Amino acid sequence: MNFSVQFKVRGDDFGGHFINGISMADSESVWKCKLLSADDEKNVYESADGYKITVYHIKKGDVFECYTVFENNTEKTAILDMISSFAITDIDADTLHRATSFWSAEGKMLSQKLTDLNMERSWSGHGIRIEKFGQVGSMPVRKWFPFIALENSKTNEFIGVQLYIPSSWQIELFRHREPLTLLGGIADFDYGHWCKEVKLNESFTTPKAVVAIGDSLLKVCDILVKAQNPDISPVDEDLPVVFNEYCTSWGNPTIENLRKTAEKLQGSGVKYLVMDSGWYKEEDKNWWDTIGDWNVSKKLFPNGLKEVNDMIKSYGLIPGIWFEMENVAPLSQIYGETDHLLSRMGAPLNVAGHRFLDLRDQWCVDYLDKKVIKLLRDSGYGYLKVDYNENIGIGCDGAESLGEGLRQYVLASQNYFKRIKEQLPDMVIENCASGGHRLEPSTMELCSQASFSDAHECASIPIIAANVQRMIKPSQSQIWAVLRAKDDIHRTYYSLISGFLGRLCISGEIFDLPQENWQIALDSVKFYDEIKHIIKDGFTSVIECNVEDYNDPEGYQIVLRELDDEALLIVHTFRNGANPHYKDILKNWNIKKEFGSNLDAGFQAKAYLLEKK
Asked: Which domains does the chain have, with CATH numbers?
């Protein structure tokens, strides 16, 4: 693999061949560089202007960790308008794979022939061919995951990359006269209004990217996902089941409701009981409009939250709580503290009525210490769900560019996640951003779990859950299984077995379920206990699903995850999907245990624990 560098210093010529305005790559800054040295871990370049650029590509296990360090040894301040975390040249490929992502539709794979993207070399070699994509703002998994894979269908070779960037990012594929060049990193000045001033004897280090090679798309994704190194709390290592009461109370938790739930869950095998939004809301006000002050509702919990948690613990459960700690809503008092909130061009940054704490400001850190960490410690919580429901967009004030302000702000936000773990080292942290908008690796490494999506009760849940397996560890991917009293047994199986595609998270009206349905739920937890080692350490070798419309799925889905001599086979049927053909998979396996419906109609599910013949 040939690693290189792409960067653009302000004042240098933009590239030719009609690239200006599309990309900042292939600029004079690159032309003026010469390679000083190269070894197995880095390439060192020197610019004619006196800049030193070191491109790291360090082999760690099955991946290369890539990042770039720009050093200014001149008397003049350099302004970087673009710099790559990784750049790979001389790639021979014909197919591009990307993971699209919208709210409640995360991870759908888009695979395109390069010829369909008009990426053939021009007849004369003149004119750049380019495909560039990315995301702008503080939700790094909105529209796209920060991921790409290139396939050579003739040789069956794949190159895959994940960016570890929690703010604006970009990935570019371009062709000139040479074979393909692939690069990516922070969204540049043109795309994300990012620039960085680097003064004499200063340096700038890019976020990292991880690169893998494999013989299939699933294999490359598996290598990339297994390279992620999350901070898992010890109590969460064995993938215990979560109950989140959001789809029970819909933002109106009460001590009576929590007591009923805890009584029902006692002895069920569920470990966490998480109270979601609304615990702080003021009388006659909506929970959404009062985010930010974090005062415990005296009406809902007149004796505070410690009484609630002591009750939950008495039933053998670990209590959890929901915060959206980075945002503030218009009916909160802190909404008016504009000196400590993000601004853009001197005005408070408002998004759909919400504003954002500037976590670069020590005042905001101290505020959250009092409102979040102190409450967690004093009330005896063991689980924290961190939600994030709006996007900063292109950036904020406080740095030399809006994009750099955004980058610094998001890193300060990540530092607060680390601060929580430093002060409460056993805390289980769940990463949620309207479901899956922050499922990128650098954020996932700060957390034990993540909400895979805000898909609560829709038919597409198993499809989304399978998609997300390609991007994050299934052992971190918390999947909703919402149980309703009106559900028949097939719908109950369908929901619960969807949870076997990651971390099982139950919600809904469990105290109103018919006994048969509740017994299925109890049995699902037992079955989950027998398969979670495969969820945690296995390899997803098959995802077979040809569904086109997530709102009206037709057909079926088959997912096979293997670990040594065992495997987990999960099958879901959709409209017109009865009796799916998966018997060929079973030719090499014996059925050790099964759980679910007969798959003889639409919207049913079945899970098999298999062992090698």
From this structure: 2-226 (2.70.98.60), 234-451 (3.20.20.70)
Helices and strands per DSSP (H, E), number in the chain: 14, 36
Cβ neighbours of residue 102 closer than 8 Å, sequence gap 6 or more: 142, 143
Determine the residue type at 27. S
pLDDT digits (tens, 9 = 90+) for 472-506: 999 999 999 999 999 999 999 999 999 999 999 99
Using CB atoms within 10 Å of the CB of residue 484, give its burial: 0 to 12 exposed, 13 to 18 middle, 19+ buried. middle
Q: What is the mean pLDDT of residues 131-146?
A: 98
**Strands 241-244 vs 78-83: parallel, antiparallel or unpaired:** unpaired
Judge whether residue 177 has pLDDT over 80.
Answer: no
Length of the chain: 613
Q: Containing H/E element for 374?
A: helix 374-379
537/563 Cα distance (integer angstroms):
7
- pLDDT tens-digit profile of 302-315? 999 999 999 999 99
Determine the pLDDT at residue 612.
96
Identify the bridge partners of residue 159 per DSSP, sorted by sequence position: 150, 213
**Residue 442: Cβ-neighbour burial (10 angstroms; 0-12, 13-18, 19+):** buried
Work out whether strand 7-9 and strand 33-38 pair parallel, antiparallel, or are unpaired.
unpaired
| Average pLDDT over the chain, rounded to an integer | 97
3-state secondary structure labels for all residues of 461-509: HHHHHHHHCCCCCHHHEEEEEEECCCCCHHHHHHHHHHHHHCEEEEEEC
CA distances from 322 to 280, 314, 387, 590 (A): 10, 21, 7, 43
The three-state DSSP-derived secondary structure of 395-443 is CCCCCCCHHHHHHHHHHHHHHHHHHHHHHCCCCEEEECECCECCCCHHH
- Which run of H or of E encompasses 63? strand 63-72
DSSP designation for 334: G
